[in-house]
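wait is this the right file?? whatever heres the structure
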């Protein structure tokens, strides 16, 4: 009696008899071959991953499908995943995340074509217009160049021997004519990651990505399969003509999100803003009146730009280059790449401008000013006395009177 009461108490604590009764009448869910569903992982064994779909429906899939490149399991119990229904046998529901060699046979391939289930394929060789790909059951399919990857294939030989995911776009002649697309699988993955990033990325936040390509106008960076641009002006605080000296393809970098335009699929990032701004302490590091060594980086008609440090450039006006003499162009005094000693004349932190002068030119300028001042003094003195003729004319009348 006590035992019966104990059982009743335990059941009551978990759920009511009404709930248990209602659950007992729930019919197993029926799936159509190729149907895409979401399921929760309830158990992981040495060979299989068991799934719960609710409604007393359970299934399983091959554990090897969810191993990463290093052979480690990429999921854990309790996670929700997406899978495709393959078949039912002895009330056991078989699922897959993609068709592999273990699902050999035209039946599964035709099912994969009708339902859009991705499958694995080995790129065997390059043929006219694309690639020959070995797929499940020893069959072969054709993948056009335009359907291999998200971007145009650079070196086709790099793909030979790779095992990639494909989707069947054409299935005819009982499997003797199969056309594949790797691009559609990648686009679906990119769209999923894009939607996930839309909910997490915000302008101004720091993120980590990988440099995917370098162009004359900047560098493209990937976060997963989503790609954005780092404009050349946002690569470094320094003025760099060749950004290859700072970054390389495949390098992982931390950047700041500049702009997110999801409608136009334009994402922009800044590499330099993830670093400290050298102008924050400019008045402390380069106070007015201090002397520094710098490198001439650009000659202009009106003066010369000198780099004093990463992201810190200053201008020597042409009037301060000639050491007291007039010049027509800065090239008469300095050359690109030349190291010069400069003096900080003025700091404009708000506009990020430094006014410089060449060390030594100030003395020459002072001497020039003194010389010009002395010459002007003599001229004024002479003007006050008049000319020699004026003096003689003033004396002649006096002698005439005598």
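ok assuming it is, sequence goes like this
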């Amino acid at each position: 009696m006590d035992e019966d009461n104990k059982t009743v108490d335990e059941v009551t604590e978990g759920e009511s008899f009404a709930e248990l009764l209602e659950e007992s009448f729930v019919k197993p869910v029926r799936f159509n071959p190729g149907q895409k569903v979401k399921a929760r992982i309830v158990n992981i064994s040495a060979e299989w991953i068991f799934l719960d779909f609710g409604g007393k429906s359970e299934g399983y899939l091959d554990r090897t499908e969810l191993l990463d490149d290093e052979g480690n399991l990429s999921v854990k119990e309790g996670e929700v995943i997406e899978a495709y229904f393959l078949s039912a046998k002895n009330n056991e529901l078989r699922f897959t995340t993609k068709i592999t060699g273990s699902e050999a046979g035209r039946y599964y391939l035709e099912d994969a074509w009708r339902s859009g289930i991705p499958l694995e394929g080995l790129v065997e060789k390059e043929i006219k217009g694309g690639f020959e790909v070995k797929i499940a059951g020893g069959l072969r399919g054709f993948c056009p160049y335009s359907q291999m990857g998200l971007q145009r294939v650079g070196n086709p030989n790099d793909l030979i021997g790779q095992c990639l995911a494909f989707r069947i776009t054409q299935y005819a002649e009982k499997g003797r004519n199969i056309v594949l697309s790797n691009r559609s699988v990648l686009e679906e993955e990119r769209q999923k990651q894009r939607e996930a990033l839309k909910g997490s990325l915000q302008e101004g936040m720091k993120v980590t990505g990988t440099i995917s390509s370098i162009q004359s106008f900047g560098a493209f960076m990937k976060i997963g399969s989503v790609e954005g641009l780092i404009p050349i002006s946002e690569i470094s605080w320094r003025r760099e003509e060749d950004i290859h000296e700072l970054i390389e393809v495949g390098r992982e970098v931390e950047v700041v999100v500049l702009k997110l335009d999801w409608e136009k699929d334009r994402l922009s990032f800044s590499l330099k803003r993830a670093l400290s701004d050298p102008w924050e302490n400019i008045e402390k590091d380069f106070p007015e009146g201090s002397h520094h060594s710098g490198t001439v980086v650009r000659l202009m008609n009106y003066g010369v730009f000198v780099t004093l440090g990463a992201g810190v450039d200053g201008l020597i006006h042409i009037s301060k280059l000639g050491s007291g003499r007039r010049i027509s162009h800065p090239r008469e005094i300095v050359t690109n790449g030349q190291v010069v000693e400069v003096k900080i004349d003025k700091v404009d932190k708000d506009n990020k401008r430094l006014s410089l002068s060449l060390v030594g030119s100030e003395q020459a300028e002072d001497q020039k000013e003194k010389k010009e001042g002395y010459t002007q003094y003599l001229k004024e003195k002479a003007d006050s006395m008049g000319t020699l003729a004026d003096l003689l004319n003033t004396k002649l009348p006096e002698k005439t009177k005598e």
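The helical segments are 2-14, 17-24, 106-115, 183-200, 282-285, 361-385, 388-401. so i think its the right one actually
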